[in-house]
Design goal:
Length: 213
């Protein structure tokens, strides 16, 4: 089998179309054309053709991964899921994943640390832990990231969220116990631990002269 022609893909500036002498057409990344020194008249056996198709698949997957990462920092598992959803096989996904890790384009330890320090401003440790697990970060990495935060970070965040919500609730709720119950549920739903919520509410509501006893 020979390459009859190599033409640019009008829909993708990074790709070309290889037309073989048997009429078959193979999309091909331009980087691969340079790497393999592809040109018209070059002959291919079945093994060489399979290698070319496999190499092209990995380059396409790499481009898709880069595009996905341009939208924001992601975990390795999020990238793997994205590539899987696009139909790439496990071998291709594994190859691209290794490349991304090698060049530190994905770094779950850094991601978990940045995510924890950002989200603790509005949510508790329980939610942060749950969200990172959902993103595919392993438990050990999550605990290290959470442990790197200030010991008072969750308490301070909980108190800040509670104070803001309390001001809103006080405008429409006069019953002290209903107010406390609604505030408690609000904070627990944000992922703050029950112990932290109870301690903050006792402090905050006492400050507002609401008797909890």
């Amino acid at each position: 089998m020979k390459i009859l022609s190599i033409e640019d893909d009008r829909r993708d500036k990074d790709r070309s179309r290889l037309t073989m002498d048997d009429g078959s057409i193979y999309p091909c990344h331009k980087e691969l054309i340079v790497r393999m020194h592809l040109k018209t008249g070059m002959e291919f056996d079945e093994a060489s053709l399979r290698d070319m198709v496999s190499a092209d698949e990995k380059l396409r997957a790499k481009d898709d991964a880069f595009t996905f990462l341009e939208r924001g920092y992601k975990t390795l598992e999020e990238v793997r899921r994205k590539l899987s959803a696009k139909g790439y096989d496990e071998d291709t996904i594994g190859s691209v994943s290794g490349l991304l890790e090698e060049y530190r384009m994905v770094d779950d330890e850094r991601y978990a640390r940045l995510y924890s320090n950002e989200k603790i401003r509005k949510a508790g440790v329980l939610k942060i832990r749950h969200d990172l697990q959902a993103k595919g970060v392993d438990k050990e990495t999550i605990e290290v990231a959470i442990g790197s935060m200030s010991p008072d970070a969750e308490r301070e965040s909980c108190r800040s969220q509670a104070a803001k919500k309390l001001e809103l609730l006080k405008k429409r709720e006069s019953d002290q116990w209903k107010l406390r119950s609604k505030l408690y549920g609000f904070l627990v739903n944000k992922g703050f631990s029950r112990d932290t919520v109870s301690a903050v509410l006792r402090e905050l509501l006492t400050d507002d002269e609401i008797d909890l006893d």
